[in-house]
Amino acid sequence: MSPYFKKRLMAAAGLFWFSYLVIHMLANLNFLTGEDNFDGFYHWFHEAVILRWSVIGLLGLSIGFHIYTALSRQFDSNNKRQIAYKKPYPQAVSRFVAWSGASMLFAFIVFHFVQMQLLPTHNFYQEVSNIFSMPLMIGIYALGFFSLSTHLHHALSSVLQTFGLTHKQHHGFVFLIIFILMGGFISVPISVYL
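RESULT FIELD:
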């Protein structure tokens, strides 16, 4: 499989996750409309067992494929480089930062998934309110949102470049998308904490 094809497949898996994030953010905004709307949606989703586990399964497969492709591309790149860089320090720092951010994001996704699966299902609104009334949870979610926004910035810019869109205006569009998405996610804990 060519590196270019791998990159396109990786971008497609990432776009699937991005689509889910948009839907997840819109569903979470129901929290701002009151307990009945929020609980109503999540009770429906929880009881739609086939739909819920199909979504979870597809997300699991796509993130697994995304991670596998990213790692294999990195190993291919390392193995094909015949001569090491004379000054690898700046690149090593950016690579370390990129992989640390991706690892932190993956840890946050796993944490969030497990936490949400362990919640009692009778009152989601109250459970989410309890979570975001704890400063520790605010800190964990702030780190998660930060790692998500930095990963999205890199990912969306790369996707645009992969599909031939590299103009500076597109980078402004990426910032706008991330700002709207993060604003939607952050509005829930802020509404609880304030």
